[in-house]
Amino acid sequence: MWAPIAAADEIVARLSYHWAPKHHSAIYSQEFADRVNARGEGKIRIETFPSGQLFGIREIMGALTSGSVQLGGVVGTVSFPPVNRNYNVEALPGVFEDFGHLRKFFRETEVGQEVWNDVLNRTRTKFLAYNPTGPFMTFTSQRPLTSTESYEGLKARYLSGVERPRWTALGADAVSMPTGEVYTALQNGMIDTFATVPSAIKAYSWWDHVKYAELPHQFYADSFIMANQAWFDGLPEDVQQLLIEVGEEISEESTASIMEFSDKVLEEFVAMGGQVNTLSEEAQAEFERINREEVFPGLSEMIDPEVLDAALEFSSQ
Predict the structure, then answer these.
(1) Given the DSSP bridges, would you call strands 155-158 and 193-196 parallel, antiparallel or unpaired?
(2) Do 170 and 235 belong to one domain?
(3) Are residues 102 and 69 in the same domain?
């Protein structure tokens, strides 16, 4: 697929991601490219294409697999389930405590490893860095979200199919919609609610149209910087090592800063007149009941029962 690379030639690679420049994941995607370019000057140069200039959130995985682009920013809950549906366990509400807990499941349990390795093998991609999107929470323009009843009749956008059973269980009308259409849909009233990470409401200016947010976080959306495996294998060994080393640095720094970054965005949201409501213990218990009795069973066609059981058992330990 890839032509041989002469040792004396500078390698030029394209890094495509859908995040807007102010998004936390976009900031660290650019930082990844900047560090590689500085340390690999004369050997490799990465050109970045943010805001879906090359490929959108639902297109990047296919582009990496086909070799249409060398590097990409990938959101796990969007790109991985079409390859292996069991990756949907990431988005189970209330199951994983944080990013470390989530990653431990995929890297250290037999079931999780099988899912993770299957995704990489089938897509012919190379993992380079963790670049988390953030903690998911719900935002709406309609009313404070303080109970399960608050969701009745809301028009909720969903990005991945795993979100839909929860909206249905809570009595909201679910509408499938890519990232690029959300602002206009909020503007014209097609939707009034969505679950996303705090970084997104700032990066895409969605906070122009929403007034209320709900805590605690539902799940932790991990994202990655990935490479086409054939392209990576064809690189000189020192360039491969450079990408791996910078990837490790970005993984640590992006993960360490994501929660603080998210909290600061919420502070800005409140300063603009927004309202963040934390559920009472009684309300949280009701959400947990609905998850157990309606949401998790509704995911039976999206997650194999043994994988769902393994994730719930892992969470309870």
Answers:
(1) parallel
(2) no
(3) yes
- Is the pLDDT at 304 greater than 80? The verdict is yes
Together in a domain, 183 and 121: no
Instruction: Please count the residues of the chain.
Output: 317
C-alpha dihedral sign at 51, 241, 34, 12:
negative
pLDDT (tens digit per residue) in 254-297: 999 999 999 999 999 999 999 999 999 999 999 999 999 999 99
Same domain? For 201 and 245 the reply is no
Q: What mean pLDDT do residues 187-210 have? A: 97
Residues contacting residue 34 through CB under 8 Å, at least 6 positions apart: none
Could you tell me the pTM of the whole model?
Answer: 0.89
- Asked if residue 271 is part of any domain, the answer here is yes
Residue 92 counted as domain residue: yes
CATH code: domain of residue 236: 3.40.190.170
Task: Let me know if residue 17 belongs to a domain.
Answer: yes
Q: Within this chain, do residues 225 and 201 fall inside the same structural domain, yes or no?
A: no
**Short-list 165, 201, 154, 167, CA closest to 182:** 201
DSSP assigned state of 300: T
Q: 190: which 2 tokens?
A: 């097609």
2 within some domain: no
3-state secondary structure of 264: helix
Q: Which domain holds residue 22?
A: 11-134+221-261
